[in-house]
């Protein structure tokens, strides 16, 4: 009755321990990457909304400037120089406002593009780390160290893209991203 029940563990306990440690580390790294990726996506959504709002405001300001320029021309023909001058000033004010709005919209668009490239890096990281996790599980089943080494290779690629995303490094395989998009 005092016999210990042994858990079924493969022949190579050392390999199983390495697989277990690999799985835990990959899970933690994936979780951290996912949190950052989600934050980048939220920033991209805010940039996109801001860009759309700013371009809409830019267009309406351009229309106001055009309307004031038209009013100035008409008032000039009606011999109302004071009113025409006021319309010209308003048109100039709207033109200046439109330049500022255009610059803000372009900045939001540029930030969206930058964040999109970072999001791609985190997506690639997640993909390679998921592959590594699956291959590590297979390594335990087939009890092959070489399979675990393949998992570590995929994990290294995932870690590379994760670090590139966090550090904003220009590592971005455009061909692979284009293929997967």
Automatic annotation (TrEMBL):
Q: Which residues form a coiled coil?
A: 84-111
Reading the lineage from the top rank, the first entry is: Bacteria
The reply on keyword Membrane is: yes
UniProt entry keywords in alphabetical sequence: Coiled coil, Membrane, Transmembrane, Transmembrane helix
Q: Which residues cross the membrane?
A: 18-35, 127-146, 152-171
Key word Transmembrane present in the record?
Answer: yes
Pfam families (UniProt xref): DUF4337
Name of this protein = DUF4337 family protein
Organism field? Sphingomonas oryzagri
